[in-house]
Automatic annotation (TrEMBL):
GO molecular function per UniProt: secondary active sulfate transmembrane transporter activity; symporter activity
Topology of the protein relative to the lipid bilayer: Multi-pass membrane protein
Biased composition (Basic and acidic residues): 1-10
Main location (coarse class): membrane
Name of this chain's protein: STAS domain-containing protein
Keywords: Membrane, Sulfate transport, Symport, Transmembrane, Transmembrane helix, Transport
GO cellular component, one term: membrane
Compartments, record wording: Membrane
Residue ranges constituting the STAS domain according to the UniProt record: 525-648
Transmembrane domains' residue ranges: 145-163, 175-195, 207-225, 255-272, 284-304, 341-364, 376-395, 415-433, 440-462, 474-497
Length: 656
């Protein structure tokens, strides 16, 4: 018998652990997995705390600066106007003036309509486009965002408020609760920003937001059928079934043909204007001024024809003057305090999600950075101040921000210009809106919410991730068939469910060797990858925590059982080594280590050696502290899968 044959026979009598040990001793250049230096508990806690709340190192600009410079930097961080204002010039003002006047022409008619969505007098919509934009211009860091009431938040606020107080029977208490909710919306936003908890809004996934916005847009459009058709008695519910039932039940006696004519003509005009603006970006100003132009023409038409005498509903009286103080109207005690807090938190979070998303979108387009936490403080401050000056919840408007961007805005001065125009309107022009038909406001709102129905994004979500699509559709149908708050609850619930599913059921994969390389990859992704006889290599694509440790252990054991059946069926060498590729395992807790211990003991009984490849610093440190590395054997932990396979069966790995 030859020496080589004798060697093979003698190895056949050894256990997998002895085979691995003998081969590793003869294997050249096997690298050990490095163990990070020990850190004390305080340093480890501070590192985790910093990475969680201060990952962007917001105080880096203050290092090595004089006291006066630090004070100036501190002032600029709270009020960015002191930073960009120093370099402001006439050229920038020209761009801001044009964009400010443009968005003002868009916001005035929208504000009147959005206030009606919130079941408030139209003047409160104008108030909310006067004070909040001024505050944001001083404290906000986005150059492009246009501040004011928006359709979705107005509808959400109106729905939540109406559930507590009927605005028709108790208008004063309803108004007080609206200001209370606005106050707590601002407090919520500012608190999240101050304590750097902005990451919480990221729990509402993009897919859920797309579905929620689309459902809210359809709900808003359906609500406008009251004004669009001239219906006087209309349901207070927002679900599609109740609304359509209300619409068709009043078809024979409740519709007004003059109102429908006005609505249809001007909605067509608005849609054509929007189409022209999309086709030619230089004509962006046409869809921007179209709403105001529609209001002027329709108001004049109603006035000269006295269509209001023929059933066309009009705005009627609109108070003149600046925002009155409303501090004494906010509930700081009593039963409505908690109700206002609850409504404020919900509406504030939705407003925050929309504003931050808009700010980040336009910042990326212009290649500058915004601090999400500072934005939250700015938005919160403007809503707190707004609640004290007769405003309801304001946030960033996507349609107005897009117009602001295309009009060439340079800084937040465009918001100041818009506020000045709204101020002049409040002081001198509000009586002119007396004969403005509700029909034109309905047409303007329908035109404004159509872009919120993002079909392309929904199709893309379906193609990319089916679970995301379920979240999207769940939020969408929840809004249109139940209510806005139910849709929002479904959106949040499905977003959390997706996170839990991904955490508790991480992906695992069997790896094979790419031919003529030392690289091991998923055999389903790379069908040409080959398996090493006697070795099963599995990759775990997640941290191993208490929530998934049992699943990971059971899944690995199931992979092993399936593989052993296949091997037995085709008379191949039995599995002697189980290699776990741990590169994606970013962390492990005590439950995860116990799961590995149970797996190791189970494999020992079946005469299979457990081997680990490339555990990260956090993982290898915990494996050493828990003494699992000693139990497994330090010679069973390798830097790469290739080294682990070479150590287990070098001859076969070379041949593959």
């Amino acid at each position: 018998m030859s020496a080589r044959a004798h060697h093979v026979d003698s190895e056949g009598e050894l256990s997998p652990a002895e085979i691995s040990s003998r081969r590793q001793s003869n294997s050249p250049s096997v690298h050990k997995v490095g163990v990070p230096p020990k850190q004390n508990m305080f340093n480890e806690f501070m590192y985790t705390f910093k990475e969680t709340f201060f990952h962007d190192d917001p105080l880096r600009h203050f290092k090595d600066q004089s006291l006066s410079k630090k004070l100036m930097l501190g002032l600029q961080s709270v009020f960015p106007v002191f930073e960009w204002g120093r370099n402001y010039n006439l050229k920038m003002f020209r761009g801001d003036l044009i964009s400010g006047l443009t968005i003002a022409s868009l916001c005035i008619p929208q504000d009147i309509g959005y206030a009606k969505l919130a079941n408030l007098d139209p003047k409160y919509g104008l108030y909310s486009s006067f004070v909040p934009p001024l505050v944001y211009a001083c404290m906000g860091s986005s150059r492009d965002i246009a501040i004011g009431p928006v359709a979705v938040v107005s509808l959400l606020l109106g729905t939540l408020l109406r559930a507590e107080i009927d605005p028709n029977t108790n208008p004063d208490e309803y108004l007080r609760l609206a200001f209370t909710a606005t106050f707590f919306a601002g407090v919520t936003q500012a608190t999240l920003g101050f304590f750097r908890l902005g990451f919480l809004i990221d729990f509402l996934s993009h897919a859920a937001v797309v579905g929620f916005m689309g459902g809210a847009a359809i709900t808003i459009a359906l609500q406008q059928l009251k004004g669009f058709l001239g219906i006087k008695k209309f349901t207070k519910k927002t679900d599609i079934v109740a609304v359509l039932e209300s619409v068709f039940s009043s078809a024979h006696h409740g519709w007004n043909w003059q109102t429908i004519l006005i609505s249809a003509c001007f909605l067509t005009f608005l849609l054509v204007s929007k189409f022209i603006g999309k086709k030619n970006k230089k004509l962006f100003w046409i869809p921007a001024i179209a709403p105001l132009l529609s209001v002027v023409i329709s108001t004049f038409f109603v006035y000269i024809t006295r269509a209001d005498k023929k059933g066309v509903q009009i705005v009627k009286h609109l108070d003149k003057g600046l925002n009155p103080s409303s501090l004494d109207l906010i509930y700081f005690s009593g039963d409505y305090l908690l109700k206002g807090f609850r409504i404020g938190v919900v509406s504030g979070m939705v407003a925050l999600t929309e504003a931050v998303a808009i700010g980040r979108t336009f910042a990326a387009m212009k290649d500058y950075q915004i601090d999400g936490n500072k934005e939250m403080v700015a938005l919160g401050a403007m809503n707190v101040i707004g609640s004290m000056t007769s405003c309801y919840v304001a946030t960033g408007s996507f349609s107005r921000s897009a117009v602001n961007f295309m009009a060439g805005c340079q800084t937040a001065v465009s918001n100041i210009i818009m506020s000045i125009v709204v101020l002049l309107t409040l002081l001198f022009l509000t009586p002119l809106f007396k004969y403005t038909p509700n029909a034109i406001l309905a047409a303007i709102i329908i035109n404004a919410v159509i872009p919120l129905i993002d079909v392309n994004a929904t199709v893309l979500i379906f193609k990319i991730d089916k679970l995301d699509f379920v979240a999207c559709m769940g939020a969408f149908f929840g809004v249109i068939f139940a209510s806005v708050e139910i849709g929002l609850l479904i959106a949040v619930g499905i977003s959390f469910a997706k996170i839990l599913l991904q955490v508790t059921r991480p992906r695992t994969a069997i790896l094979g060797k790419i031919p003529r390389t030392s690289v091991y990859r998923n055999i389903h992704q790379y069908p040409e990858a080959t398996r090493i006889p006697g070795v099963l290599t599995i990759r775990v694509d997640s941290a191993i925590y208490f929530s998934n440790s049992n699943y990971v252990r059971e899944r690995i054991q199931r992979w092993l059982a399936d593989e052993e059946e296949k091997v037995k069926a085709v008379s191949l060498p039995r599995i002697q080594f189980l290699i776990i590729e741990m590169s994606p395992v970013t962390d492990i807790d005590t439950s995860g280590i116990h799961a590995l211990e149970d797996l190791y003991k189970s494999l020992q009984k079946r005469d299979i050696q457990l081997v680990l490849a490339n555990p990260g610093p956090a993982v290898i440190d915990k494996l050493h502290v828990s003494h699992f590395a000693d139990m497994l054997g330090h010679d069973k932990i390798f830097l790469t899968v290739a080294e682990a396979v070479d150590s287990c069966c070098p001859k076969l790995s070379d041949e593959v």
